[in-house]
Design goal:
With about 190 residues, the chain is an alpha/beta fold. The protein has one domain: 3-Layer(aba) Sandwich (Rossmann fold), CATH 3.40.50.170. It has six helices and seven strands. It has a seven-stranded mixed beta sheet with strand order 3-2-1-4-5-6-7, sandwiched between helices. The protein is globular. Bound molecules: 5-O-phosphono-beta-D-ribofuranosylamine. The site of 5-O-phosphono-beta-D-ribofuranosylamine has 14 residues, from helix 1, strand 5 and helix 6.
Length: about 190
């Protein structure tokens, strides 16, 4: 039996995708192990959930920038992930751009989930962008992370309809449901390679 795929998870928010991944691990459908969860937000739900599960949870002060870690912080992040034994880095609602130190430390081993069918609607609040554009369909995308904003190679996508009367909240909830199935499925495929 192969050893479980060692994951490092980065998140800034409530952590529902991390929950979905943790549930798949518990259910035995994903042969992986979360070695550490790291957040740039001290009171993020994702850290609280990690602690509840007994998973190592680390707050990493991001430093002086808004959209990325300052270089010293990103160096610390790389050291933390390596020391925890993570081999794949899973962005789960992580709200900062990833820069060279992390990209170079985990080449083609950093993945992200984005709430649209990329390349449509990159960036923030993609579900609102889909509504504003009058799209009849949107969804979610798991992709490799590169130095751009939501530009890395697509691994898998899942479509959801935009329904008449959708609000940003109802549409986002439908996309998140699709995310919670897609992310564990992609990780399972990686773990089985
Ligand atoms: C998800 O919608 C994901 O697509 C985006 O950030 C959100 C994270 O949600 N990148 P959660 O923290 O996993 O609940």
């Amino acid at each position: 039996m192969r050893s479980p795929l060692p994951l490092g998870i980065l998140g800034s928010g409530k952590g529902s995708n991390f929950r979905a991944i943790a549930n798949a691990i518990d259910a035995g459908t994903l042969h992986a192990e979360v070695r550490v969860v790291v957040s740039d937000v001290a009171d993020a739900g994702i850290l609280a959930f990690a602690r509840e599960r007994g998973v190592r949870a680390e707050y990493l002060p991001p430093g002086r920038f808004k959209t990325r870690l300052e270089p010293e912080a990103e160096d610390r992040l790389v050291a933390l992930l390596k020391e925890a034994g993570a081999e794949w880095v899973v962005l789960a609602g992580y709200m900062r751009m990833v820069k060279a130190p992390l990209l170079d430390a985990f080449p083609r081993r950093i993945i992200n989930i984005h709430p649209s069918l990329l390349p449509s609607f990159p960036g923030l609040e993609a579900w609102k962008q889909a509504l504003a554009a009058g799209a009849s369909e949107t969804g979610c995308t798991v992709h490799y992370v590169d130095s751009g904003m939501d530009t890395g190679e697509v691994i898998a996508q899942s479509a959801v309809p935009v329904l008449p009367g959708d609000s940003p909240e109802t549409l986002h909830a439908r996309i998140q449901q699709a995310e919670h199935a897609l992310y564990p499925a992609v990780l399972r495929e990686i773990a089985e390679r």
